[in-house]
Amino acid sequence: MINLYAIAQRDLAKDLVFEIDEEEVILSIKGVMIAKADSKSYNLSFVEVSENEFVLGIQMRGYIIYIGLESDEEIDEEVYPELVRALIAQLLPVLNNLIEQAEKMKYRESRKADILLDDNMSDDMREFFYEMLIRRIKNLPLYEQTDVA
After folding, report:
1. What does the DSSP assignment read for 50-99?
2. What gap in Å lies between CA 26 and CA 28, rounded to an integer?
3. What does the alpha-carbon distance between residue 54 and residue 108 come to, in Å, rounded to a whole number?
């Protein structure tokens, strides 16, 4: 397990700088969680936690890695697709390495989910991460639907 924490600290506890629509965007990675997934398919989720915080969930190879990001300023929804593409391009090698280490450790057989990085998360983001962690450990649905679809 220590390898996963070390990878998260070394490769993910940092600020990322992007140029989106000719404007500089700085994102700080504040949290990382790894969890088992029932499927080995690829999927992506994006959850806005506050005006300048969001969580990117990337499912691949039987795992979901949640990355909590904080921007130095509010980001317009219009740039989300371009920002997500840039994030995936930059983070994919690190996420692949994280999953390779998890597979070597037989993580899927021993754990359901773990928070690997908690770097001064806001209360809202911490609440999101720990709620997801508890739901994963207890095999509860990840999201509760409160409105009729």
Report:
1. ETTEEEEEEEETTEEEEEEEEESS---GGGHHHHHHHHHHHHHHHHHHHH
2. 7
3. 26
Contact in structure between 101 and 7 (CB atoms under 8 Å): yes
Cα separation of 82 and 6, whole Å?
29
Map 117-133 to HEC letters: EECCCCHHHHHHHHHHH
58 token code pair: 């990337």
Give the count of beta carbons closer than 10 Å to the beta carbon of residue 50.
14
Question: In 3D, which of 96, 112, 93 has the Cα closest to residue 104?
Answer: 96
Structure confidence at residue 110 as a pLDDT band (50, 70, 90): low
Over residues 119-128, the pLDDT tens digits come to: 889 999 999 9
